[in-house]
Amino acid sequence: MAVTKRQNKARKAENKNASEGLAKLGAKEYERELAKLHGELVKLQLWVVDKGLKVAVVFEGRDGAGKGGVIKAITERVSPRVFRVVALPAPTEREKSQMYVQRYIRHLPAAGEIAIFDRSWYNRAGVERVMEFCSMDAVKRFLELTPGVEKAIIESGVILLKYWLEVSPEEQTRRLEARIEDPRKIWKLSPMDLKSYNRWYDYSRARDDMFKATDTPWAPWHVVRSDDKNRARLNVIAHLLFQIPYEDVRPEKPSLPKRQKPHGYVEPQYPYKFVPEGNW
Description:
Elements: H1 4-17, H2 27-51, E1 54-61, H3 67-75, E2 83-86, H4 93-96, H5 102-105, E3 113-118, H6 127-130, H7 136-155, E4 158-166, H8 169-181, H9 191-197, H10 200-214, E5 221-225, H11 229-243
Parallel strand pairs: 1-3, 1-4, 2-3, 4-5
Helix pairs in contact: 1-11, 2-11, 3-11, 7-10
């Protein structure tokens, strides 16, 4: 099973962070704690592969809630062949004619995989409803059917985790304005973000209905306060690790073998086209 000390630490952190008004997490403390959690994610990765586990992690939330940053923090030190990110574009005409969940089902994990959904089948309960891309009858039908579908997914052997990132209206405004001003972030601001920005309470109603219908004992929603991005990332990773009992199956520490002798090899006088250095 997972390390007891880590479990106790995760419980304490969860209780501590349930209170309001925590000081913003500093960069140094964040990097220190993230490095520790990255080490645990590597252990989890090896355990998932070794035991052939199937894990699906769903991230939902408003535009600017921090889903992408959380996913990047999870995946930046692990193998993309094990931690596979699923971020689907708008459906094609063919996909629109399919059963709604069909395009998502095929991305569920196989043995030894962790599939991370950057938005998921819950698009129907959120953006599609708010932006009127589908009828309310379709939304109601989706909410009725989803608990059963998720139960079937879990009974097939998939560990399903669902996270909702909760951002305040003030912080959402700050982040979207930053996307407008920062050339590194402008790609994150889609026309859909601008159209949906003024529909805060439509999204609130959609979220409330979604929770009421799909927050089930077998597939509960885990809500993460995300105004402090660094703290949210640490909280999600610690919580995710706690949900999947694992053991350390790392092999013994390897040592590098001696490099072979050149046996007459001589570097050629080849005109390599080196990239210019310091040209920035």
